[in-house]
Structure formats: C-alpha cells, structure tokens
Amino acid sequence: MSKQVKQLDRVIIRFAGDSGDGMQLTGDRFTQESAVFGNDLVTLPNFPAEIRAPQGTLPGVSSFQVHFADHDILTAGDAPDVLVAMNPAALKANLGDLPKGATIIVDTHDFTGRNLIKAGYADNPLDGLGEPGSPLGEFFVHPVDLTGMTVEAVKEFGLSRKDAARAKNMFALGLLSWMYGRPIESTITFLEKRFAKVADIRDANITAFKAGWNFGETTETFVVSYEIKPAPMSAGTYRNITGNLALSYGLVAAGVQSGLPVFLGSYPITPASDILHELSKHKAFGVTTLQAEDEIAGVGAAIGASFAGSLGVTTTSGPGIALKSEAIGLAVMTELPLLVIDVQRGGPSTGLPTKTEQADLLQAMFGRNGEAPVPIVAPQSPGDCFSAALEAARIAITYRTPVMLLSDGYLANGSEPWRIPELADLPVIDPNFATERNKTVVAKDGTETEEYWPYLRDEETLARPWAIPGTPGLEHRIGGLEKGEGHGNISYDPANHDFMVRTRQAKVDRIADSLPPLVVDDPSGEANVLVLGWGSTYGPIGAGCRRVRKAGYHVAQVHLRHLNPFPKDLGEILSRYDKVLVPEMNLGQLSLLIRGKYLVDAIGYNQVNGMPIKAAELAEAIGNLVAEAEGVTVDLTPDPIAEEASK
Prior knowledge:
Shape: globular
Distance between the termini: 23 Å
Structural class: alpha/beta
Strand content: 15-25%
C-alpha cells in the first residue's frame, strides 16, 4: 500500500494521559527526536498539581505539548493540531483546546463504563463517530487500541499485563514518530541506557516503540505521513534544554567565570527543585549543594557562604520568597553578593504549584521591611536562563548586593534548541576581594594608623569592599543593624541612617550605567503602538506582533531583562509611542511600575489562568490598539501557516 507524504511548515502535538502513563517521557523523547532532526521547537509540559490524583480523573491528567517547525518559532503553540489521548479523562480535559479539524488519536482500551463516569462522560464520545451529532464530529478521530496492541507486541517477554501495558506510551511514540518522520535511533539508544539493568523492561519498551512505528507504516488507518523540514539556524553546536537546566549551567558558569566556589542553600519546592538536583551533580566545578530543613535555613546558609567568599545562591518559588524576605533584607544590609532564584508559580499561598504565573514582581521589588532595594533580572526563554544567571551573578558580585532572578514554571519546564556558547564569549566576573587595609586614620596626637573600613565605597559602583574572613588585618563587624558610613560600626544616628538608605538605593541605581541600550523591534519605524513585556511573555508577544505585521500593520516591541533598575533609555523609548500595551501573567504589576515611574498610561493585557498567554488572542488585542491609535480598521487575516498545519 502506497502512502502519501505531505509537507507541513509546523505542527503542534499534545500527548495527554493519566499522570502514570508516561506522557512527560513520551513528549520529551519526541522533542529530542525533533531536535536531532533539526527543527526549531518549543515545548509546554503541563503537570497535575496533585502528587497522585485518582487514576482516570480530570485532576490527574498530565500533558506535554511540543511545537516544531521548519522556521523560527517563539511559543509552544496556542492550540494542538494533534491530540494523543490515552484515556477518557485526557480526551475531556483537552478537547476544549482543539481547533476545528484537529486530529485526535485515542486509546480505546480504557473507554470503559467506569472510566467514562470518572471522567464525567454520560455516554461514550467514541460511539457514533462519523454520524451527525457526534460530539467529536468536528475532528478527525482515529480510535486505536494502543494498550491492547502493546500487550500483544511484548508478550514474548513474560511481563505481567500491568507491566506490559505500561509500554503503551512507547507504542504511541513510535506511531507519532512514523507519522512525522522523526529519527528513532536516539530513542532506542535512550531506552537501552535507561533500562539497561532490567533486560525484559528494556526490550519490551523498544519492541513497543518499534511496533508503533510499524503499525503506522502498515495500517490502512493512517494513509498520510508528514514531513517538516529542518529549520535554518546559525552555525554552532546545539542541544535541547529546559529553563531549569540552562539556569543551573549558568550558575556553574558564573562560578567558573568569577573564580568563586558556588554554594546553593535550598529547600525543595515546585517548580524550582530541578535546579538543586542538577547542581548537586557538579561538585567537579566547585559547586556545593545543601538541601536545608526549610526555606529560611537555605537562604541563611547561602548568606553565610557569601560572607565566607563563595557565590551564595538560594532557589525557590513565590511562597519561599515570602519566607526568605527577612534574610534577603539581611543581605541588603550586609551588602553581600547573593543570588535569589524565584521560579514563579500560581499563587497566592500554595496556589497552583505546577502552573505558571508572573505575579511575584512586586514581591521582588518591595517584599521586605524597610527600604531594601534589590536588583531584578528576568530571562525571556528557556535557553536565556543561562545568560540571565550569568548576568545576575555579574551584578551581585560587582555591586555587592543580593539579586533576584525571576524565572517561572513555563520557562523552567519548557524547552527549546540552545546554541552552546563559546567559553571565550562568556563574561569574566572579577570578585576583586579586599586584600589590604584601606583607611588611614589620624589620631588627635597626629599619629597615623592603617585600618580596614568595610563600608568605604568604590566611586564608580558604590560597592563596598569584600574581605574573606581570616584575611589578616581585615577583621570587621557585620550584621543586620545599621552601619556607620565607612567604618561599618553600629550606628543609630538619624542622619547616618538616612544617608545609608539613600546610598544603598543609589548603588542599585548605578547598575543602570552598566546596561546595554534596549533593543527596539520596530521594523517599519512607523509604529504608534509599543508592546512592552518581561520574562516568559517574550514568545507570545513576539508571535502576536508578527501576526499583526503580517496583516500589514505597524507595531513595535521591547522586552525587559532588567526590571530594577530599569534601563536608562526606557523612558525615552516609551515617549515615542502613543499607546503602550503591557502583557503580563498577573493583574498589572509591571504596568503599575511603569505608570508610577514614567507617568505613562500603560495599558495592561492581563491573564492569571496558570497557562502561557495565547499569541492569537494577544494579536487581537494589539490589533485593536493599533486600530484605536491609527484610526483604521484592523483585519487580522488567518495565519496561512497555522491553517495548513491544522489540516
């Protein structure tokens, strides 16, 4: 039987099933195959919040979405073109996200009466396919007994039916790998290594994977396969990387480039825990990790490490930042380098622990007692977490200050191709430790003595000297009480406190002098509307602006990495545009800061549903603002690439 091969520009696939069905592994392997093939890609893992929700229920559905293309893409996609659903709950939980004409591959094995009831179905949605009134009538549905065929394919290995059925995710992966022409060698090698110690499990998974591929090749159910060519990329060595992994590598690189040992004091918390896991593997690079008994102990140990001459790091999410706030204030007062990594998630309190949000910006800015300014850095993509970590370390070490790095769950768990940088291109960070006394003190009798004053400041950066404890002659006081200017002894003098508060603020403000000019993406130079973003909204904003420009309208984009202090040219850039739109996954936190500092009527586009902003919906909002600013009617014609991919 001859099969048709159809060329596509891009495809969005979502694997969905129970949290025990291996959907994250399946999606990750498909992603790795696509990366090896050379496609550009972006992923969106979506985990259930419950540790182990009842099997077959909606709260227990786990999914993994991958968007891959033959051109540069910015997001994991608004809606999947293909859904692979392993049970009724997975189908019901994801059906509302599918566009008309999407393809559904569904495992029929678990569509029993009991499982349908658990998923909230009164009737089997697979009944009556192709007939008028079918609930799945708008989609191309392929019912396949993935579980049954998997069990049959691996029966030679003598596994129990339960263990055999666990390989169904590999059968599904094999089928999808055939459908989209993915190279399968990397997955086979992966399975051989992962299950090397259990030969039957290894062989069963490989057999199920190959059986899925062969099923696609031989069955009449699937008569079309698809080809998505590699994407053009600049020369270099690439790997697929998640935000948490890139951030971990960035911290390792910061230690190497500064010559400092890295100390991580951390308490496990979703979605930041993988940074602790990864850094624990890199003792060879001078990394020490401590899994502390709580959040406060973690940051306290990191501050102690910084005092002792290491690069102190603590990782957490929003609830942990709340607990660490007093200790961060201590780092502000002692003026020690400290990296505080906040991988943001839905809140408040425990909130949505496995979902994404950008709602910790104001906490990072103001969530401490007293005037305690802290620089804030935010990466824009998973791979950019590497560079953001290096930048945060540069600021912390150069200016002797704690620095907040605001990642989020979307960046942390999502992935993209990342060009591995050349070591020669990484910045060198000089800790410039104090090695000798720095103050000549003249007594009343005219005698001079040399002393070490820990709060004398560098004229350019206003940073205080950093002396490693035990350096002869450089003993000094340190702690949370206010310091006297220069000498650093405890001071309750009102004028001194006012001076020191202003000096610490001025030190943070000086960081703006070291920042490069902002990049304004305004191709035509005729835009009246500026879209201003930060963090993980970079992808949706970029994709939304592309769509508006493709329709023939003008819009500019600026994305902020530095949120405190703002870049020096931001105010001038804002003044060029009639309208400023600020998309955020919160209720308007950057908008509030922009309004307050620059008196600009920033317009918020706000979403707090635990998911990334959808590019198509954002494009509509941008288009409406362009129409208002230019007095025209904006018609955003459908994206032909997206239309073709959904067929």
